[in-house]
C-alpha cells in the first residue's frame, strides 16, 4: 500500500489592525490550545510555528495533498480562535485581518528553510536575541532542546552535515 502524499503550506495570519494582541501570554496560550484541539480533530500535520505579538506563522500539511484543505483549515482556525477570545473577553469584534497568506511549499528542504526563517522571526523583530528565548515557537522542538507549547511533526533533514530530527508518529 502506498503512503498518502502530504502537501505542506506556510500560513501567515495577521491580527486585526495588526494589533499586538499576542503580547498577552494568555492569548498566545489560548491560540496554542485552539490550534492543538483543531489539529487533533482534523488530523493535519503541524511542522513548525511561531506566535508573534501581531501575527502567527505556521507550517502545516494535509494528508492527501488537496489544495482546498489548507484554506478550509485556516478559516476554521481563525473562526474558532476568534470565538474563544471574544467569549473570554466578553466582547464581539474582529480578531483577524481578512487577508491571510497560504503558500504551498515544495518538499522537505523548502519546509526546513521556511521553518528556520519563521523560527528567526522573533530575532528579526527585535523581541529576543536568540530564537530559543522565544517561548511561543517550535524552535526548541526542532533543536531537540526542550519543551514547546505544542508538539510538532518534524520532517527528516536531507543533506550532508545536517542531523535529521526524529519524525513524530502520525
Notes on the structure:
There is one protein chain. The chain is α+β, with helices and mostly antiparallel strands and 170 residues long. It has one domain (6-143): 2-Layer Sandwich (Alpha-Beta Plaits). Helix content is 37%, strand content 21%. The protein contains five helices and four strands. It has helices at residues 25-42, 67-89, 107-119, 121-124, 139-143, and strands spanning 6-15, 45-51, 55-63, 96-104. It has a four-stranded antiparallel sheet with strand order 2-3-1-4, sandwiched between helices. A hairpin with a 3-residue loop joins strand 2 (45-51) and strand 3 (55-63). Helix 1 crosses helix 2 (67-89). The model is unreliable at 158-170 (pLDDT under 50).
Please give a handful of descriptors for the protein shown.
170 residues; alpha+beta; Alpha-Beta Plaits; 4-stranded antiparallel sheet; globular
List the helices and strands and how they pair.
Blueprint: E1 6-15, H1 25-42, E2 45-51, E3 55-63, H2 67-89, E4 96-104, H3 107-119, H4 121-124, H5 139-143
Antiparallel strand pairs: 1-3, 1-4, 2-3
**Number of helical elements:** 5
How are the strands ordered across the major sheet? 2-3-1-4
Reading off the top of the CATH hierarchy, the class is best stated as: Alpha Beta
**What composes the largest sheet?**
4 strands, antiparallel
Identify the quaternary structure here.
single chain
Care to count the β-strands?
4
Helix content: 25-40%
Basic shape: globular
β-strand percent reads: 15-25%
By CATH, the topology is Alpha-Beta Plaits
The mean pLDDT is: 87
CATH architecture type: 2-Layer Sandwich
Distance between the termini: 17 Å
Contiguous low-pLDDT stretches (5 residues minimum) are: 158-170
When the domains are counted, the total is 1
Name the CATH superfamily classification.
Transposase IS200-like
The secondary structure category is: alpha+beta
Query: What is the radius of gyration?
Result: 16 Å
Amino acid at each position: 500500500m502506498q503512503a498518502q502524499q502530504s502537501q505542506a503550506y506556510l500560513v501567515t495570519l495577521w491580527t486585526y489592525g495588526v494589533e499586538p494582541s499576542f503580547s498577552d501570554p494568555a492569548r498566545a496560550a489560548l491560540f496554542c490550545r485552539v490550534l492543538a484541539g483543531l489539529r487533533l480533530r482534523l488530523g493535519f500535520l503541524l511542522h513548525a510555528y511561531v506566535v508573534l505579538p501581531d501575527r502567527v506563522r505556521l507550517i502545516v500539511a494535509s494528508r492527501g495533498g488537496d489544495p482546498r484543505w489548507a484554506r478550509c483549515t485556516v478559516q476554521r482556525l481563525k473562526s474558532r480562535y476568534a470565538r474563544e477570545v471574544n467569549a473570554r473577553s466578553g466582547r464581539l469584534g474582529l480578531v483577524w485581518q481578512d487577508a491571510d497568506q497560504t503558500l504551498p511549499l515544495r518538499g522537505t528542504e523548502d519546509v526546513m528553510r521556511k521553518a528556520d526563517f519563521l523560527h528567526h522571526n522573533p530575532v528579526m523583530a527585535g523581541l529576543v536575541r536568540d530564537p530559543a528565548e522565544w517561548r511561543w515557537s517550535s524552535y526548541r522542538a526542532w533543536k531537540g532542546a526542550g519543551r514547546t507549547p505544542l508538539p510538532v511533526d518534524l520532517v527528516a533533514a536531507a543533506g550532508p552535515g545536517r542531523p535529521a530530527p526524529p519524525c513524530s508518529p502520525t
